[in-house]
Design brief:
Mitochondrial carrier fold; 173 residues; 0% strand
Length: 173
């Protein structure tokens, strides 16, 4: 007894929803740590360590300051998870069908690697715009405090490219 047929639209939707939950929620939960890490990378003189970074952030912005960037993190990593988990299954079945049942079994490790890499390619494209906004919010004091402020400002200053400058480093990761 299965909840849906393997390879059906419902199957892909459930896989994608699992990605939203596992990536979006977990990355959002660690926003304070990510915020301090990003600030340490950008300004190591001011943010000397993790504990110092938390202390400086709370002193300057209050406890709410530790949540800066939560919205683009949630949206971006939810989109990445949706694509990563959903497309992995799509590509696994697609490539498996291209190879045939016996070769798909014999070459399953390579097939899973190719499916994973293909899914990650699209997942990073989905993540990049929100990751760009998150980094600006977290590391450029006074630039923007919310996603609603950051997106139009970024687009106005640099156009659509502002949201995709980080996609190649994401692919390299």
């Amino acid at each position: 007894e299965y909840s849906c047929e393997y390879g059906s639209l419902k199957f892909y939707a459930l896989c994608g929803f699992g990605g939203v939950l596992s990536c979006g929620l977990t990355h959002t939960a660690v926003v304070p740590l990510d915020l301090v890490k990003c600030r340490m990378q950008v300004d190591p003189q001011k943010y000397k360590s993790i504990f110092n970074g938390f202390s400086v952030t709370v002193k300057e912005d209050g406890v709410r300051g530790l949540a800066k960037g939560w919205a683009p993190t949630f949206i971006g990593y939810s989109m990445q998870g949706l694509c990563k988990f959903g497309f992995y299954e799509v590509f696994k079945i697609l490539y498996g069908n291209m190879l045939g049942e016996e070769n798909a079994y014999l070459w399953r490790t390579s097939l899973y690697l190719a499916a994973s890499a293909s899914a990650e390619f699209f997942a990073d494209i989905a993540l990049a715009p929100m990751e760009a906004a998150k980094v600006r919010i977290q590391t450029q004091p006074g630039y923007a405090n919310t996603l609603r402020q950051a997106v139009p400002k970024m687009f106005g200053e640099e156009g659509i490219w502002a949201f995709y400058k980080g996609v190649a480093p994401l692919w390299m990761r």
